[in-house]
Write a structure and sequence with these properties.
Layout lengths: L3 E8 L2 H12 L6 E5 L4 E3 L3 E6 L3 H13 L3 E8 L4 E6 L5 E6 L14 E8 L2 H9 L5 E5 L2 E4 L6 E7 H8 L5 E3 L3 E5 L4 E2 L5 E4 L3
Parallel strand pairs: 1-2, 4-7, 8-11, 13-15
Antiparallel strand pairs: 1-13, 3-12, 4-8, 5-6, 6-7, 9-10, 10-11, 14-15
Helix pairs in contact: 1-2
């Protein structure tokens, strides 16, 4: 079964971006790698990263740490029908959703999180679902314009969402062009998906 080892994000200043992820989220290069941007990109890049935590206090702690490290607030932390969450944009341009399905705290606040999830905004969810299914990714959940893949052995989860809907839930305009400025590093090999998202070797 396909496992995602890490994500490589392109940034104008890779060293500063790596420091941001360490300071804000405690993420090292084993999960989030950075490299110098080699392609132009404007507006929404078509994806979001999520840190899924066990309680609201952790969401707020991660959110505040990200803002203190230089992130821009796209959506403040707030309660909803599904839990508690907030959205920030890192200095390198990547959008991060910090969320929990829990409504109440169960312990002291910390930066601990349970899952990292990459959500790709795609034009044709059905076609992309089939594309990834052909590459060894089994579907765990699928409803409407959302697909969650089963990645039990992977430190980073993967989902699909309609691009327009993903931009709306992130609090950012849908318009964007050029490079996604992201590479997914996995054991599935090197390829480019129907929406232009690049995949590379986990050892890259």
């Amino acid at each position: 079964m396909t496992a995602i080892d890490s994500i490589t994000l392109e940034a104008a200043d890779p060293e500063a971006a790596q420091r941001f992820y360490a300071d804000a989220f405690g993420l090292g290069a084993d999960r989030i790698r950075t490299r110098r941007a080699d392609a132009a990109s404007t507006g929404f890049r078509g994806y979001t990263m999520s840190l899924v935590t066990s309680q609201p206090a952790n969401v707020r702690t991660l959110f505040d740490a990200a803002v203190a490290a230089g992130a821009t607030v796209l959506k403040p932390v707030e309660k909803s029908l599904w839990g508690v969450g907030g959205v920030v944009q890192a200095p390198d341009g990547a959008i991060w959703n910090l969320a929990t399905s829990a409504k109440k705290d169960s312990g002291p606040a910390s930066k601990d999180f349970e899952h990292i999830v990459l959500l790709l905004g795609v034009e044709d969810v059905g076609a992309s679902k089939r594309f990834y299914g052909d590459r060894g990714l089994a579907t765990a959940k699928s409803f409407g314009s959302y697909v969650d893949f089963a990645t039990p052995e992977s430190p980073i989860g993967l989902g699909l969402y309609k691009r327009r809907a993903l931009a709306k839930t992130s609090g950012i305009a849908e318009a964007g062009s050029g490079s996604h400025r992201i590479t997914v590093n996995s054991d599935a090999g090197s390829f480019t998906d129907p929406d232009g998202f690049e995949w590379g070797s986990a050892s890259a």
